[in-house]
Write a structure and sequence with these properties.
Elements (H helix, E strand, L loop, with lengths): L3 H4 L10 H17 L12 H21 L6 H25 L15 H7 L3 H29 L3 H14 L1 H16 L1
Helix pairs in contact: 3-4, 3-6, 4-6, 6-7, 6-8, 7-8
């Protein structure tokens, strides 16, 4: 049986990170145990449920940033609730991805070539984990925009397009905010 390290193209990292090896070995052992149970799918949230829950949490965080700009607890709720929940959901989806197999016809999965990344994303569970990862970091970028906008004295209406672009296209929204910041500082 191929372990999760070799599946993700990380088999050569074992000498450098014994704790990673131990954690992934434990994941592999759990996978082997769960394959003996017919109802193993009942032990973990479904992919559809993880997608729905992570999308709802992210939208809640964005709703706080966009609709409640003056709420004193807003940043704490976004970071302490929404982002933390997304991190937990990411951990759950990553665990499921690492204990499953993708389409082997795509080649050897890995992080250091486009072909390897495409092979990683042949596994729908890995795609979900990547999606939750994106949701969490885009929301963190939105929180950064809110915090830096407040420090620079940029009005909320100037930030809303930055939020929306960050929600939809991540780095482009951050880039827009950086441009707004430069223009605001020049004015």
């Amino acid at each position: 049986m191929v372990g999760p390290l070799s599946f993700y193209g990380l088999a050569n990292l074992s000498p450098f990170s014994p704790s990673l090896m131990a954690a992934l070995h434990a994941c592999d052992q759990l996978q082997q145990r769960f394959t003996h149970y017919e109802d193993a799918s009942m032990l973990a949230p479904s992919q559809k449920r993880l997608f729905q829950l992570s999308s709802l949490v992210a939208l809640g965080g964005w709703g706080v940033l966009i609709a409640l700009p003056g709420w004193v607890l807003g940043p704490r709720v976004v970071l302490g609730v929404a982002v933390v929940l997304l991190c937990v959901l990411y951990g759950a989806s990553l665990f499921q991805a690492m204990t499953s197999r993708g389409d082997r016809s795509m080649g050897k999965p890995g992080f250091f070539s486009l072909r390897g990344v495409l092979a990683l994303f042949s596994n729908p569970k890995a795609v979900l984990a990547a999606w939750v990862h994106i949701l969490a970091f885009d929301l963190l970028a939105g929180l950064y925009i809110q915090q830096q906008g407040a420090l620079q004295g940029i009005g909320h209406l100037w930030l809303v397009p930055c939020y929306l672009l960050t929600l939809m296209f991540g780095p482009l929204g951050l880039l827009l905010f950086l441009g707004v910041g430069v223009l605001h500082g020049a004015g």
